Amino acid sequence: MKKIILFFLFVSIKGLAQDPDFFQTWYLYHMLFENSPSIHVGDFDPPISPTLTINPNLEFNGEGACNTFQGTFIYEFEGFEVETSTYTTAVCGEEQDNFEQLYFGFFSIGTPFGIQIEDQGDNIQRLQIHGGTFRDLIYYNTPNLSIEAFNQQNILISPNPASKTLFITSENLQMEQLSVFNLSGQKVMELKEVATEIDVSSLQNGIYFLKITSEEGTAIKKFVKK
C-alpha cells in the first residue's frame, strides 16, 4: 500500500525535522501550471537535469539548466516560505533561460508553499511542491531518465542488493531495451541483447537505476550493487 506523507502549511517545524525523507536530493520531472502548458524536463534537447537538495537546517541548493541556486526555507505561523535565495546568471540558451526564469522564480523570497511526499515502491519517492500563484513542481528522488512509466508492480528484480547477477521477472512483458544508470544519471551499461539477467559484477558498489523499455512504456527500478 502506498504510504502518503503530507506536509501542509500547518505542519510544525518539529514534525518536519523528524522525517528524513524530506532532506535529500530531488530531481525535477515536471512543472505544472494552472492556465499554461506544463513543462516536462525530459523534453529538453540537449537534456537538462534540474535538482533541489534540502538539508535538515532548511537550507537548500540546486541546479537549473546551467545555473545554480541556493537559499533557506523558514517555517512561520502562516506556513513555509523562502527566506533567502540567490542564483547564478550564466546564459544557457533561449529555451533553457526561459525555463530557469520560471524554475528559479518559484524560489523567490517570500514564496509560500506546501509539500506532499509519496512512496512509489522500490525506495522511489515522489515530492510535490505547491506554491507561488500557479505552480506545482514534481520531483522524484531518482535522476530524470525521460521516463513515461507504466505499471511497475509486475516487474521484479532480485536479489537486491546484488553482487554478481541481477534477475528480472515480469508477467507477459516483452522487454526491448535494458540500460543501467548511476546516481548522476549517466548510463553505465546497456545490454545489446535483452535478457532476464544482468551481470553487474563489473559495477562499483553503490546505488543504480535499471531502465526497462518495452512496448508498454518505460519503467525504472532502483537496485544496490554490493
Automatic annotation (TrEMBL):
InterPro entries per the UniProt record, alphabetical: DUF306_Meta_HslJ (IPR005184), Secre_tail (IPR026444)
One Pfam short name: META
Signal peptide: 1-17
Domain Secretion system C-terminal sorting: 157-224
Coiled-coil stretches noted in the UniProt entry, renumbered to this chain: none
Entry keyword Disulfide bond: no
Superkingdom as given in the UniProt entry: Bacteria
UniProt name for this protein: T9SS type A sorting domain-containing protein
Lineage of origin: Bacteria, Pseudomonadati, Bacteroidota, Flavobacteriia, Flavobacteriales
